[in-house]
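Tutorial handout. Part one gives the primary structure; part two gives the three-dimensional structure as tokens.
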Amino acid sequence: WNKFAKKFIYAPAFDFPEVEGAVAYKFTVKPAAEGAAQEWTFTAECPKAPLSPIWNEITPGNVILTVEALDADGKIMAQVGERKFLRDFPFTGPYPDAVRDYKEAARMAIYYIHRMPAIQSWKTQTVPDMGYDHNTYPCKIIGATIRNEVLVAKEFPLLAEEAITMAKNAATFLIDMSRPEGDPLAFFPPTYYLDYVSSKRDWNQGKTMTLEACAAGHAFLDLYDYTGDQLYYDRAIGIADTYLKLQREDGSYPIKVDFVTGEPVNEVRAMLHPLLNYVLRLHNQYGLTKYDSIAEKGEKWMNEVAVEAFNMTGQFEDVSVLGLEPYENLTNCTAAPYATFLLGKSQTTEEELADAKDLINFCEDQFVYWASPEKKYGVQLHHTPHVVEQYRYRMPIDHSACNVANAWLSLYEETGDEIAFMKAKALIDNITIMQDINTGVIPT
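Part two.
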């Protein structure tokens, strides 16, 4: 699975070929910096051996690994592989504590969003203000706007009437843009709107990400919970009914489809945690068992295919899935939430616990940076600790930090693992540090 990996915290192994007649393989790791004399070596019977014998000795930094086949006399027959990667810094601590109360940080952030001019426009408009060009992603951004305004109504009672008006107007837009009843994607709002940012890409025109309707469904449910208006509940149920019809026999769903016909763009499958969490909410909060089969079949596919193969592929609306190789765009945004889902079940089996731990370790290994290896004039390029989003966008993202922190918190709640708690806390504490003290904005 690590064909496209750039860094490792835990000792990796690589898929290097065997050489006929070789009796051993020499592994050599050197710093990538020119002129560095230090090296670490060991021999193994197989070129696929993990680097465990020397891993803890290797100084964190960019390194080059070479693997050479040896004959019976110990002479080099051939070089069978080479990899350049970051031997990343492990979790050590202590890390800076939070600079404000967590709930205060959250309230500052949701109030900042509420006050954004493009969000304020929902007070009088039922179409998005494209001065905020990410409104081009209706399910994700406008769905999140609805959820944010319901939070504002709960946390700031004096703003409740205004916030709910804004949420209703945003919901009206999602409803107006949704596919009609009877269509293959009935009740689904679109992933893309107009031609801003990635909505203008040829490969996105007339397409939709299959699981993004879950974001709108949660938004409708939040609004129903606050207002009691049946309209929003019915919309959320309509979305669930369509998912029930769309599920394939093996439990999977296509990652991206034509918004009118529902035809898949390719054979890449979606990671199912958004839908599994949606179905879980319908079951736990509203007592609906009609959709349990979605979860049963979906979990089976996730466990036997995606997790088993470790192919927790990205499903971002702004990154093309066309021509995507297995493992080409791995991300914490699928692995960590699925671990959280497994740990959040009423009864987590030993096998599910083991899978969750593997997924969390994978996320830390590939996406969490406890220290910055890159410096300019002696200064770190990025504040740490942080979590990068995906292979195709290796930048610190607040949402990614929350994904992985949530998984560690779930592991702590399930097992009492205090290191897991400390890791989660370190990531969230840094978000409070990065938050603008005056505006409340949390940079992505």
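Part three, for discussion. DSSP finds 13 helices and twelve strands in the chain. The mean pLDDT is 96.
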